[in-house]
């Protein structure tokens, strides 16, 4: 017991069990009382250590002897079930496991399965479910991306004069200027396309797993990354749809769509469902936007009203000299023309040095009145 | 003499332990009754589900009996049991977290609070000091608190603490050292404050 004479720190006392007994249970077999009084600096240390012990009590256990007994019985039950299981399964397996050959075969099997799984996991993601980002990474033309985070559709005009009405929560990537023999854009979400005619340069829309090829038409594509289906709805012209060749197990299937036909692509099993009459399809007929409903066949219609129709269709704002164009009436068919083409045709019809300027969704018509 | 007390205790345990290994059900039951509530209390300081904790502790004992042939001879039973319970609860928590798809899988927190030996405190000044000290201890980071608990309430050695917390000896030592250093510093500051308050009050 003499080593307590070397105690210099509170923790020396805390770690001493007989000190515990003395402080907490007044059990002073080691004559702590006397030892403490021998020396005043020692007494100070002991007093501190006492306070520490007082402050470090462990809360009493609320388990009764009966509860512990019950727990013990429960544990014996658990042991019984576990030993039964162990004897039933573990013995033959263990015996088998002790066989060298079995171990070798098992190891080979495990490695084979793992590598198979790894291969699948690694390449299967590429096989199905192409995402917008993967598609964009495939392209090296230096794309511009436009995202519509607003709650209204947004008009995008491409360098070839084609226009795209991009719905909220959608994005479109396209080259600033189309070069080469193809025009390629990438869509995630929903957009209504009006493509300017150019048979020499076919226009491609890449949307998730499918590719839509057109020459000059208007159509809608709905391809949200988080939805099970992709939809293509044709308004005018002819549209060809095939699956993206980046998908390894794609079928070389080409679907041709004509006006008022549509296609639903089931992404999970890569199946095309052609819908020959869109008015018959519940979901499609409900989800048409303004631009798909509005007609662009005008016969002797005030130009102000034509502008209003365009404003509604493309959600743009058109400023025009109302007084000067008050008496202008037009007869024209603007059905499958892109927005800029429509404006060009109108300005041409108005004559008199009429022209338009477009700035985002603001369009200004400059005109001195019609002929 | 102190050595002797500790010695008889560990001797007792080690005899029970080796009997248990030989298949002595009585030894198993004695150890179970001796440590069950300790272990449950320790387990309860990690997760607020008393039934689950009891389940974990019972599973620890179940495995000890079922796999008694593989048990190590030279263990300090109490330290071994505490470590087993801690590991088991940590593991069950991690499993739950995976199922809940939560992101944090960091080590479990020691939520235990030390209490005060009220019935041993006679005067007000002491009561005030002890209360302050108790708050300081309970405000320690949870790992430091756990180290203190294992060292001074469960009387584990630093080596056994390191084993229980799954860290190396030096880390366990540092943990304890830092806790005590921090306590002593704050304690000195607050003691003078308490004394000052009392002096001005009278």
Automatic annotation (TrEMBL), chain A:
Residues 296-365 form the Protein FecR C-terminal domain. Residues 156-240 form the FecR protein domain. It holds the Pfam family FecR_C. Signal peptide: none annotated. It comes from the Bacteria. InterPro entries: FecR (IPR006860), FecR_C (IPR032508), Ferrdict_sens_TM (IPR012373). GO terms for molecular function: sigma factor antagonist activity. This is FecR family protein. It comes from Flavobacterium xinjiangense. The lineage of its organism: Bacteria, Pseudomonadati, Bacteroidota, Flavobacteriia, Flavobacteriales.
TrEMBL record, chain B:
Keywords: Sigma factor, Transcription, Transcription regulation. GO terms for molecular function: DNA binding; sigma factor activity. Residues 132-183 form the RNA polymerase sigma factor 70 region 4 type domain. InterPro entries: RNA_pol_sigma-70-like, RNA_pol_sigma-70_dom, RNA_pol_sigma70_r4_t2, RNA_pol_sigma_r2, RNA_pol_sigma_r3/r4-like, WH-like_DNA-bd_sf. It comes from the Bacteria. GO terms for biological process: DNA-templated transcription initiation. SUPFAM superfamilies: Sigma2 domain of RNA polymerase sigma factors (SSF88946), Sigma3 and sigma4 domains of RNA polymerase sigma factors (SSF88659). The keyword Ubl conjugation does not apply. It holds the Pfam family Sigma70_r4_2. Belongs to the sigma-70 factor family. ECF subfamily. This is RNA polymerase sigma factor, sigma-70 family. The lineage of its organism: Bacteria, Pseudomonadati, Bacteroidota, Flavobacteriia, Flavobacteriales.
């Amino acid at each position: 017991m003499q080593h307590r004479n070397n105690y210099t720190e509170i923790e020396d006392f805390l770690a001493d069990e007989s000190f515990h007994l003395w402080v907490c249970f007044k059990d002073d077999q080691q004559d702590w009382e006397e030892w403490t009084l021998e020396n005043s600096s020692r007494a100070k240390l002991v007093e501190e250590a006492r306070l520490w012990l007082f402050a470090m009590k462990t809360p009493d256990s609320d388990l009764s002897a009966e509860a512990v007994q019950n727990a013990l019985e429960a544990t014996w039950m658990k042991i019984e079930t576990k030993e039964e299981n162990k004897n039933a399964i573990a013995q033959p397996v263990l015996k088998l496991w002790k066989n060298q050959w079995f171990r070798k075969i098992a190891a080979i099997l495990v490695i084979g399965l793992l590598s198979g799984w790894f291969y699948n996991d690694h390449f299967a993601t590429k096989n199905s479910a192409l995402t917008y980002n993967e598609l964009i990474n495939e392209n090296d033309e230096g794309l511009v991306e436009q995202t519509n985070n607003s709650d209204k559709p947004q008009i995008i005009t491409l360098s070839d004069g084609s226009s795209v009405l991009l719905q909220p929560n959608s994005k479109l990537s396209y080259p600033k200027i189309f070069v080469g023999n193809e025009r390629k854009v990438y869509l995630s979400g929903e957009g209504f396309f009006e493509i300017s005619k150019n048979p020499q340069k076919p226009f491609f829309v890449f949307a998730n797993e499918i590719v839509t090829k057109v020459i000059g038409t208007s159509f809608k594509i709905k391809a949200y990354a988080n939805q099970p289906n992709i939809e293509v709805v044709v308004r005018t012209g002819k549209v060809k749809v095939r699956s993206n060749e980046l998908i390894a197990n794609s079928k070389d299937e080409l679907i041709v769509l004509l006006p008022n036909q549509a296609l639903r692509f089931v992404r999970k099993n890569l199946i095309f469902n052609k819908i020959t009459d869109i008015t018959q399809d519940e979901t499609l007929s409900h989800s048409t936007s303004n631009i798909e409903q509005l007609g662009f066949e005008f016969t002797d219609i005030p130009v102000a009203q034509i502008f209003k129709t365009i404003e509604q269709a493309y959600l743009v704002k058109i400023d025009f000299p109302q007084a000067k164009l008050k008496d202008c009436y037009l007869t024209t068919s603007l059905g499958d023309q892109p927005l800029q083409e429509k404006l060009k045709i109108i300005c041409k019809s108005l004559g008199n040095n009429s022209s338009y300027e477009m700035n985002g969704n603001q369009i200004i018509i400059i005109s001195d009145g019609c002929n | 003499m102190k050595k002797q007390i500790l010695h008889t205790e560990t001797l007792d345990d080690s005899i029970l332990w080796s009997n248990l290994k030989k298949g002595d059900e009585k030894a198993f039951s004695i150890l179970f009754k001796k440590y069950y509530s300790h272990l449950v209390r320790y387990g309860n300081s990690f997760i607020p589900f008393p039934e689950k904790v009891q389940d974990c502790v019972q599973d620890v004992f179940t495995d000890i009996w079922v796999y008694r042939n593989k048990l190590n001879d030279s263990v300090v039973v109490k330290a071994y049991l505490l470590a087993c319970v801690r590991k088991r609860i940590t593991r069950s928590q991690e499993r739950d977290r995976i199922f809940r798809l939560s992101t944090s899988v960091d080590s479990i927190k020691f939520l235990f609070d030390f209490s005060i030996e009220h019935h041993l405190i006679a005067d007000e000044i002491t009561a005030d000091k002890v209360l302050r000290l108790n708050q300081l201890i309970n405000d320690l980071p949870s790992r430091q608190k756990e180290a203190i608990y294992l060292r001074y309430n469960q009387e584990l050695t630093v080596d056994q603490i390191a084993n229980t917390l799954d860290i190396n000896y030096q880390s366990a030592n540092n943990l304890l050292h830092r806790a005590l250093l921090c306590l002593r510093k704050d304690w000195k500051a607050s003691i003078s404050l308490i004394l000052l308050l009392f002096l001005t009050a009278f």
